[in-house]
């Protein structure tokens, strides 16, 4: 899928009110686009309004059922109606201006929210009411002077809604979405790593997990390409599950969690060679051969389902394209 004129930095999957499954993408060309997940065709014109590069996109739903796109960019956060592509209200007023990551979720009382993160100067992680665009409470402050570039939401086994942050100092952390307070210390302590990918999901036994993709910014001791790691964490306890998965990738390791047609949970990773790999979430074993097609590094992944039930993974990269792959068993 082509249309963006610069790197496609973010993709998300959701549904319009009529049930049509769609892809939303955000790029360094300062635009947001909507695509039909079934056909790969663009829906409408690009959404224009941001004055800087778009770093992340997410899809949520307001209390009245309106599906909403949330886009994060160098000039802040904007909301768009997913059905029409029209802007919803004015841009959200953030303290830092620049926003690297956004995600959506619901608090225990049913309030739909946006979680956002800015730069290392403010260290803010902010929670917003998706219905009103108003800030909820005070920002949760990342305790380390590093930028939070990864945000995902999920639920613990007891139903507690949480968000997970990943930062440029290699530290991931679990937070309570109701209170904005941390529920864990750092999941990892690799002070020289970067958390380049982050996802949440469930294993076959129902255990909720967070999955992180960590890279080293330095060459290996023998001068070869450094080894990156995919790590699985218990979302209830913050403890690691099993051994890390080693991936040969120098500058990018994106991750997402999805399910195959038979219901088995998988991790999909994307690397700086432009390849995707599928891994069994229960065992950590690779499934099949890498998926090839991108000509430059992959920088974003999402999973979803077509109208006919086919589970898919969506990838985007520095080659300015978006691709859809079947996750069928």
UniProtKB/TrEMBL annotation:
InterPro entries in UniProt: WD40/YVTN_repeat-like_dom_sf, WD40_PAC1, WD40_repeat_CS, WD40_repeat_dom_sf, WD40_rpt
The keyword Repeat is annotated on this UniProt entry: yes
Family annotation (Pfam families): WD40 (PF00400)
Domain of life of the organism encoding this protein: Bacteria
Positions of WD repeats: 1-45, 267-289, 291-329
Annotated keywords: Repeat, WD repeat
Gene3D superfamilies documented for this protein: YVTN repeat-like/Quinoprotein amine dehydrogenase (2.130.10.10)
Protein name: WD domain, G-beta repeat
Organism of this sequence: Nonomuraea coxensis DSM 45129
């Amino acid at each position: 899928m082509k249309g963006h004129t610069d790197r496609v930095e973010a993709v998300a999957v959701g549904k319009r009110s009529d049930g049509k499954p769609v892809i939303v993408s955000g790029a360094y060309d300062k635009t947001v686009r909507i695509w039909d997940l079934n056909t790969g065709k663009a829906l409408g014109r690009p959404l224009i309004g941001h004055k800087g590069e778009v770093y992340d996109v997410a899809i949520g739903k307001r209390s009245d059922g309106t599906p909403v796109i949330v886009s994060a960019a160098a000039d802040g956060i904007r909301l768009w109606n997913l059905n029409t592509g029209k802007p919803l209200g004015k841009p959200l007023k953030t303290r830092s201006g620049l926003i690297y990551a956004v995600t959506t979720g619901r608090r225990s009382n049913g309030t739909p929210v946006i979680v956002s993160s800015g730069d290392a100067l403010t260290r803010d992680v902010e929670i917003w009411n998706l219905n009103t665009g108003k800030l909820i409470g005070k920002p949760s402050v990342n305790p380390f002077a590093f930028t939070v570039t990864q945000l995902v939401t999920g639920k613990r086994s007891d139903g507690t809604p949480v968000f997970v942050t990943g930062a440029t100092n290699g530290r991931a952390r679990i937070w309570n979405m109701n209170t904005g307070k941390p529920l864990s210390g750092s999941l990892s302590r690799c002070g020289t790593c970067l958390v380049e990918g982050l996802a949440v999901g469930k294993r076959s036994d129902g255990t909720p997990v967070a999955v992180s993709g960590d890279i080293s910014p330095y060459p290996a001791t023998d001068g070869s390409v450094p080894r990156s790691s995919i790590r699985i964490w218990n979302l209830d306890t913050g403890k690691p599950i099993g051994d890390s998965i080693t991936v040969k990738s120098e500058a990018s390791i994106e991750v997402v969690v999805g399910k195959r047609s038979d219901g088995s949970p998988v991790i999909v990773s994307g690397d700086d060679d432009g390849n995707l790999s599928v891994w069994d979430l229960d065992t950590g074993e690779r499934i099949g051969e890498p998926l090839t097609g991108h000509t430059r590094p992959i920088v974003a992944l999402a999973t979803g389902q077509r109208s006919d039930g086919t589970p898919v993974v969506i990838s985007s990269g520095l080659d300015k394209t978006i691709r859809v792959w079947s996750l069928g068993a």
